[in-house]
Design brief:
TIM Barrel, nine-stranded parallel β-sheet, 16 helices
Amino acid sequence: MLIDLHAHYPMRAIGDVRPDSALHEARRLRGRPRLRDKVRALVLRIASTFFSHRDPFSGYRITVDGLRAGGVGAAFSVVTRPFDEVALGRPYGSPPEATYFDGLLEELDAVEEEIAGHDRGRIRLVQNREQLEQALDDGATALIHAVEGGVALGEDVEANVGTLAERGVAYITLAHLLYRQVATNCSAFPFLADRPYRWVFPQPEGEGLTERGARALRAMVRHRVLLDVSHMRGDALAEAFALLDEVDPELRMPVIASHAGHRFGRQQYLLDEPTLLQIKRRDGVVGLIMAQHQLNDGLRRKPTRTLEDSRAVIFTHIDRIAEITGGHRHIALGTDFDGFIRPTLSGLERMADLALLEQALEERYGEDAKPIASENALRVLRRLWP
């Protein structure tokens, strides 16, 4: 069994424009879909087709059949708000609007509607420890809400974090692709290295975690929602860990990097040794992303061509993280499938292919394969949901 810390399952629920789509069904009782909703869904569908799918005809990387074929016991179902984050028509770096949170709740509704249409023996949404354990016992794939981008929290971040906790949201990735007065971020664009990114998208110095971001993090600790440090710039990382030590000195809350890896090259997106040790200190995990752009950095100049190539890259990240942290306890998987990471590592193109990765882990690491594949991620979730 595998656990995926970062899977964009919601793309199929909010980015589809077919008449029977979950977007339509989610709005059916409240009236016909608005033109704006249809346009946004169409744009997401086009973007997914050309920048996320393996090819224009392959469809989503994440499907229910694929999850089952890949042996995925649980996946964190990550909602992100790209249109709100870009905020066309507003100045770059402007603060979030209150309406963003309403849109986020609508997307959580859409995901729940879509999942409810499937056989509960195959897949179901879980929102607490009891539901998680029941799904695992029943052999069903458990989907768990997660949110990427603190911009989606809107204005009243304290209350909104509480609402998300009630909905079963397990973690929030406070930073994302663009700075919106929550936390500074580093470039995750394959076409834009860190230095030109800083020129095109300047961010303030001296305040990595803004006052809004600090309020959100305090609320996350209070309501037991995990912090995902993926995408955070170095100053935001340092300030976030310092604030966590202030509000949670007993280290009760783990920290995760849901889709990342070790920094072998120059990409600031990937994690250096001090960050890995902070995650270890809080008994968290790093989910390895399946993106060529990230994992190959500093290891290969050319893309992987075969599954064997991809295995070698993944093993190198695992071995280095284990060397730094003293074992395999803090390593997991976070594919970022359907999250615009084309191309993915060769041979790992869709959820069904994860069965090949699990087999490769077992061949290489023996008894340590199970913690990497599932037990480490489950340990963190069980600490969150006691």
